[in-house]
Design brief:
CATH class of the largest domain: Alpha Beta
Radius of gyration: 23 Å
CATH superfamily of the largest domain: Glycogen Phosphorylase B
CATH architecture of the largest domain: 3-Layer(aba) Sandwich
Number of helices: 17
Strand order of the largest sheet: 5-6-4-1-7-8-9-12-11-10
Shape: globular
Largest sheet: 10 strands, mixed
Distance between the termini: 36 Å
Bound molecules: 6-O-phosphono-beta-D-fructofuranose
Number of strands: 18
């Protein structure tokens, strides 16, 4: 691994729970670095490209204390977590309390005071590390729900900083959020930022509503007036705040995107186009190839879509000789009980459908529980006829945008859940309610039968949207909101 001396402080600092590369043990006892999964990394890596910046995060393994290191112009500052902290901060409070609560309680959130204590402790460690590496007046960009207390902790230590926070997952309606025993502390933590960004307008208005109902702060959408000496009141309705000294916090939607040009370039490369043809051949040249690409997560609606597909085979709307469903499910959060149960459920369902409808030379569903390379994923996007993205709730879902970016041939149909943030922009997809299995079956059938002309017209429209709103635009609009161009010029 290339490494150069890490500068002491930097004026652009990203803070995320996980570094974009995970340290895996290598044979020689050293670390092997592999790209970590998920949308956050896909979105932020291009933002960092060519920028001299710091990235503060957990390196993906417990109980190792790694020295800072540099790769190209990014300087990485690993934050160590113990096995107990992983269990209570990451698997516990982040992924068994906040994750289900923020995703509409698809599974029951658990509230444990010990987890909350560890969440605070770990957030403080991230804040301390960021405070150490940020130069005077630096821009610090905190990412996601695992670190919601960091903005306020940072502001307390380093009032000179410009602090942005971006929330990659949904922010729930107040009736759900209000269940959280520490809701006031979380809101107070977020309001330490200058700008709190969300995927959808509804997420931003849910947060403003939560602030209004807990703290009674005055606001003029999207700005919230936060008293300079704000402390989190206890969890009961506070009287309206009349403090004369306030600071303004913007709470607004900034829908995330990806590096559309680079996806399009890779997807149209000779190697990927060749591999896409091979994939179809390997699958027995089906008339229709359906594709699902997800982390194996209960929010993604994998079970719903496979159930719909199985029923279509059962009813004869689709024939296993003609159609194949390729489902890639990358391993995720396997230390959490609900994720292990989900894996069992999905694998049982796949086994049942393949048992009933598969053939000697081809199963009805090709299911891969593994991480595949970016090239192979692109080839899958290019090879398929129907991309099926049916989360029950999802902040954005960059798979949908990546599929559209990859289809430079203007072919293929997208079936997309209305509960994914991407549905706000990709309205030429076939929009579905994934809970409505009959509706889902109709959409899958319509997508499989869609004429080339209709595919082209829908795809052209969707491509225009993603090309215009790519990751550069997202990053620039967010950064400009934190440090408006006039302020940048004056500095
Ligand atoms: O979408 C939320 C998120 O936490 C992203 O930040 C991340 O890319 C993905 O889920 C996977 O997260 P984890 O670190 O839990 O594997």
């Amino acid at each position: 691994m290339a490494s150069s001396k890490t500068p002491e402080t930097l004026d652009f600092v990203v803070v995320s729970n996980r570094l974009p590369i995970d340290a895996k043990p290598a044979k020689n006892g050293a670390e092997k670095w592999v790209t970590s999964p998920g949308g956050l990394v896909a979105a932020l890596q291009p933002v960092m490209k060519g920028r001299t910046a710091a990235w503060v995060g957990w390196p993906g393994r417990v109980d190792i204390d790694l020295e800072p290191f540099s790769l190209a112009s990014t300087h990485y500052f690993p934050v160590a977590l113990s096995a107990v902290e992983l269990e209570e901060h990451y698997e516990g409070f982040s992924n068994s309390t906040l994750w289900p609560l923020y995703h509409d309680v698809i599974v029951q959130p658990e509230f444990h005071r010990t987890w909350w204590e560890t969440y605070k402790k770990v957030n403080q460690r991230f804040a301390d590390r960021a405070a150490e590496v940020a130069a005077e007046g630096a821009f610090v960009w905190v990412q996601d729900y695992q670190l919601q207390l960091v903005p306020q902790m940072l502001r307390k230590k380093r009032p000179d900083l410009q602090i942005g926070y971006f929330h990659h997952i949904p922010f729930p309606a107040y009736e759900l959020f209000a269940q959280l025993p520490w809701r006031a502390d979380i809101l107070h933590g977020l309001l330490g930022a200058d700008v709190v960004g969300f995927q959808r307008k509804t997420d931003a208005s849910n947060m403003r509503e939560a602030v209004r109902r807990n703290f009674g702060y005055s606001m003029q959408k999207p700005m919230v007036r936060v008293p300079l000496r704000a402390t989190p009141p206890r969890n009961r309705k506070a009287p309206p705040v009349t403090a004369s000294k306030t600071r303004e916090v913007m709470v607004e939607a900034f829908p995330i995107s990806l590096d559309v040009q680079s996806s399009a370039k890779l997807a149209s490369s000779d190697a990927v186009v060749k591999r896409a043809k091979e994939i179809r051949k390997e699958l027995g040249s089906p008339k229709t190839m359906f594709l699902g690409v997800d982390r194996l997560d209960y929010t993604k609606g994998i079970r719903h879509r496979l159930k719909a597909f199985g029923e279509m085979l059962q009813e004869g709307t689709l024939k296993a000789e003609d159609a194949v469903f390729v489902q890639l499910a990358s391993p995720s959060r396997e230390g959490v009980e609900q994720y292990r149960e989900l894996r069992d459920d999905i694998e049982q369902l796949v086994g049942r459908i393949n048992g009933d409808f598969g053939h000697l030379n081809r199963p009805a569903i090709v299911y891969l529980h593994q991480n595949i390379s970016r090239e192979e994923m692109m080839a899958m996007y290019v090879a398929c006829d129907v991309m099926v993205v049916t989360p029950l709730r999802d902040g954005m879902n960059l798979v949908a945008k990546e599929f559209v970016s990859a289809r430079t041939d203007h072919r293929g149909a997208l079936v997309l859940s209305e509960f994914a943030g991407a549905a706000d922009e990709l309205d030429e997809a076939l929009i579905v309610n994934p809970h409505d299995i009959d509706g889902l079956k109709e959409a899958l059938a319509d997508a499989a039968a869609m004429s080339a002309a209709e595919q082209k017209s829908r795809m052209e429209h969707m491509r225009k949207v993603v090309v215009e709103n790519d990751i550069k635009r997202w990053a620039t609009s967010f950064i400009d909101a934190v440090k408006p161009p006039e302020r940048k010029r004056r500095r």
